Amino acid sequence: QVQLVESGGGLVQVGGSLRLSCAASGRTFSSYFMAWFRQAPGKEREFVAAITYDSSSTYYADSVKGRFTVSRDNAKNTVYLQMNSLKREDTAVYYCTAREYRWRDTKRFPFPMEEYDFWGQGTQVTVSS
């Protein structure tokens, strides 16, 4: 069992930056694929970014490519989402999620939302003009 706790959300102006953090419990964080999803009011949850267990590969939604960066520190059991050049449409609750490594997972990365095992409670990001 893994518990995920997001932090770093808040109110920011258009063009500003935020860094989200997701702290994970457990001893096997380094074997988990991690990802960020977000959900805006009245919309479905959508993929934002993902990173492999060893940081060898990352993947981004087209809407955030070039503006957001996902990274992780396995020594600290933490994954990050650096968000730059924020837009109003980035306003959403951001969720951290984890998938435990399974055989041949690296070849299948990234994964759809339903294939992640654990979810955090989310952190609100509001971008205002």
Radius of gyration: 14 Å
Into which percentage range does the β-strand content fall?
over 45%
Mean pLDDT: 96
Which sequence of SSEs, written as H and E, runs from N to C? EEEEEEEEEHEE
Residues in helices, as a percent range:
under 10%
Can you tell me the overall shape?
globular
Q: How many H/I helical runs? A: 1
Class derived from helix and strand content: mainly beta
Uncertain runs are none
How would you characterize the largest beta sheet? 7 strands, mixed
Total beta-strand segments? 11
Distance between the termini: 40 Å
Kindly describe this structure.
This protein has 1 helix and 11 strands. Strands 2, 4, 5, 6, 9, 10 and 11 form a 7-stranded mixed sheet that branches. A 4-stranded antiparallel sheet has the order 1-3-8-7, with no helix packed on it. By secondary structure, the chain is mainly beta. The N and C termini lie far apart (40 Å). The chain has one helix at 105-108, and strands at residues 4-7, 10-13, 18-24, 32-39, 46-51, 58-60, 68-73, 78-83, 92-100, 118-119, 123-128.
